[in-house]
Design a protein that fits this description.
The chain has one helix and 17 strands. The chain is mainly β. The protein has one domain: Beta Barrel (Porin), CATH 2.40.160. The strands form two sheets. It has a twelve-stranded antiparallel β-barrel with strand order 1-4-5-6-8-9-10-11-12-14-16-17. Strands 2-3 form a two-stranded antiparallel ribbon. The N terminus is likely disordered.
């Protein structure tokens, strides 16, 4: 198991952002003599600073702040992504998710099947693997559905049904309903998230503050002591598209 420790971790994150922001990523196009189609290459990164790590309403950081960097590379319809969770109070990186997905349109519906490998350095958790599919439909509420099937350690599935709508200017409101089916032997609706966010920018850097309220109720395996407590989540996401 990998051990990652950094005495000045926040400084490392900021320096990494500074170095990456000076990079230039060229858009490449290839063409053959029989087709005018091209394959574009793009890259982006973002870092979310959040008041805690909530996964479907479950607190994975003991209500401590986290930094979650993510780097994506797009080649044609394929997207390769590396995501991590860093917990400053422990000076450790304790989750790394590597994924690949292929996005295409089907009668106006965006369909993106993919695969994800999950690793947990500095946690006593077994690594796992997932197959997933993400769907997005047009409309005023921008509905989305993501279904992940864990065929390794989790031996079950978890899903997120989401809607969002611009309200005024950069402000948007949204909601996410979470569901699990035998995921780590838990079935039911762990929580629902109500979220407000604002898409802003500082020069070429995207800047998105957000505030979420997670609520739960007695259902399935999420009842009594297993019922999740209500929780607030405050986050600020910095992103940049490299070209």
């Amino acid at each position: 198991m990998i051990s990652v420790r950094c005495k000045h971790a926040w400084l490392v994150v900021v320096l990494a952002l500074s170095v990456m922001s000076t990079a230039r990523y060229a858009v490449a196009q290839t063409a053959d003599t029989t087709s005018e189609s091209s394959h574009k290459i793009s890259a982006s990164y973002d870092v979310l600073f959040a008041s805690k790590y909530l996964f479907q309403g479950l607190d994975y950081s003991d209500s401590r702040g986290v930094a979650q960097p993510s780097v994506s590379l797009g080649v044609g319809g394929f997207t390769f992504n590396a995501w991590g969770n860093f917990q400053p109070d422990l000076d450790v990186l304790n989750e790394i998710d590597l994924s690949v997905k292929y996005t295409h349109d089907f009668h106006g519906l965006s369909v993106a099947p993919g695969y994800m490998a999950l690793r947990y350095p500095n946690r006593d958790w077994d690594p796992s693997q997932e197959l997933f599919i993400e769907l997005a439909a047009p409309g005023s509420l921008h509905p989305t559905l993501a279904v992940h099937y864990d065929f390794d350690a989790g031996k079950g599935s978890y899903s997120t049904l989401g809607v969002s709508r611009p309200v005024r200017g950069p402000l948007s409101l949204g909601a996410n309903l979470f569901y699990q089916n035998q995921y780590y032997e838990m079935t039911g609706f762990p929580a629902v998230e109500i979220k407000a966010s604002a898409a802003l920018s500082i020069g070429v850097l995207g800047f998105t503050p957000s505030l979420s309220r997670f609520l739960s109720w007695q259902n399935g395996d999420f009842r009594d002591a297993a019922k999740l407590p209500p929780s607030w989540l405050l986050g600020v996401d910095f992103s940049h598209q490299l070209r």
